[in-house]
Amino acid sequence: MGERRPPVFDVELEGVHKSFGAIEVLRGIDLRIERGTTCVILGVSGSGKSVLLKSVAGLVHPDRGRVRLYGVDLATAGELELVRIRRHIGLLFQAGALFDSMTAFDNVAFPLRELTDLSDAEVSARVEATLSAVGLSGVEELLPADLSGGMRKRLAFARALVTEPSLLLMDEPTSGLDPITSEYVTEALAVAKERGITSLLITPDLPCAFRLADALAFLHEGRILEQGSPEQLRASKHPEVQAFLRRYLERERLREQAGPAAVLEAQREPPPAHAPR
What we know:
The protein has helices at residues 49-56, 79-86, 104-115, 120-133, 149-161, 179-194, 206-212, 230-234, 239-258, 260-267, and strands spanning 9-20, 23-34, 38-42, 64-69, 72-73, 89-92, 167-171, 198-202, 215-220, 223-228. By secondary structure, it is of the alpha/beta class. The chain folds into three domains: 6-88 and 165-230, Rossmann fold (3-Layer(aba) Sandwich); 103-164, no CATH class; 237-277, no CATH class. Helix 3 crosses helix 4 (120-133). The longest helix has 20 residues, at 239-258. The radius of gyration is 20 Å and the shape is globular.
C-alpha cells in the first residue's frame, strides 16, 4: 500500500487580524481548508463571519496575518495572478448583490464575460444550463425586481456556479428562503461537494451546516473558539458552543427518540433565556 499523500489546502489563514476604526473584528484567525472539502463557519451575528469570508475573497485586506489561496499570498500577488485566482472562485454575497438593471441572463453571464474568453454561443449555453440546474429556466429576460426573494437568491447562486469554480465562498445561501427552496439550495451545494469543489460556507442553518460540513469552525468575538469535524463540534464542552448548538442538538435527540411530531412540538417552545440572540 502506497503512502498517503499529504493534504493540499486551497484556503489558508494565518494570524489574520482586521479592525475597522477602534472595532477589532478579527482577532487572530488561523484556518485551513483542505481541497475538495466543505468548511462551515458558525457564530452569532456580529462575530466576524462575513469579514472573514470577504478576507478570503480578497475584498477586505487584513491589518496583520496572511491569506493564501492555492498557496498564493493575496497580499503579495500581482494583478495577473489575482485575476487567474478569481477565475476559480464562485462568490455568493449575503444579499445576492445582483445588478438591478440587468436581466437574469445578463447577471449570470457577467462573470463569464469578464473572466473568460468564451464565445457568445458558449456563454448562452452555459448560462441556460446553470439556470436550469437551479430551477430557473424561463426567467432569462426578467429583471431581479420581477423575481421573488427565493428566486433572486437562486439567481445569485447560479452566478456563483456558472464559471464552474473550484472554490465556492458563500454567505448565508439559505437565509430568508422557505423550507422547500432552502432544501433545493442545500441539495445543489451537496452536488457541488460531490464534484470535489472546495467550499467555505457561512450559515445559521444548522441542519444545512451539519449535512454539508467536513469541518466546522465556531467564531466568537473575532476568534475561533472551536474547530473540527461535526462530531467534534457536537461533543464540544465550550459553553459558548454548547449554548449556540443546544436547541439544534435537542431537536436531533427528539427526532431520534420520538420522531418528527415531537420535534415540531419542541419548535413551538420559546427559546431558553440563555440562548444567544
